From TrEMBL:
InterPro entries: Dabb, Dimeric_a/b-barrel. It comes from Chitinophaga barathri. Residues 7-102 form the Stress-response A/B barrel domain. PROSITE patterns: S_R_A_B_BARREL. This is Dabb family protein.
Length: 107
């Protein structure tokens, strides 16, 4: 029976605090370009929501949520020219990234 597990890749970006509006736009355009990568089945980029509870971490600047059919799809994404170009063109705009990779569970 084929697996229904999905591979989830979440990246929280912590942008440098002194970026110009043009730099932020460059980042937003760059990160949004990742949505063109064919192996994606879910793609979302967002800023922290206004929710405020003690368990919510809102310290990041942008959150990238991507979902793939499997780890192989994620591996294609990692080596894709669009992804490599984004890193090359935008890595100077962030102080750090925090990545969470997970596989969905089957119940």
């Amino acid at each position: 029976m084929p697996t229904t597990k999905k591979f989830v890749h979440v990246v929280n970006f912590y942008l440098k605090p002194d970026l110009s509006a043009a730099d932020v736009k460059k980042f937003e355009e760059g990160v949004s370009s990742l949505g063109k990568i064919e192996s994606l089945i879910v793609f979302n980029v967002g800023k922290p929501a206004a929710t405020d509870r003690p368990v919510i971490d809102r310290s990041y600047s942008y959150c990238l949520l991507t979902v793939f059919n499997d780890e192989a799809g994620h591996d294609v994404y990692q080596e894709h020219p669009v992804h490599l170009e984004f890193i090359e063109n935008c890595n100077m705009l962030w102080d750090k990234v925090v990545i969470f990779d997970s596989e969905t569970i089957e119940l």
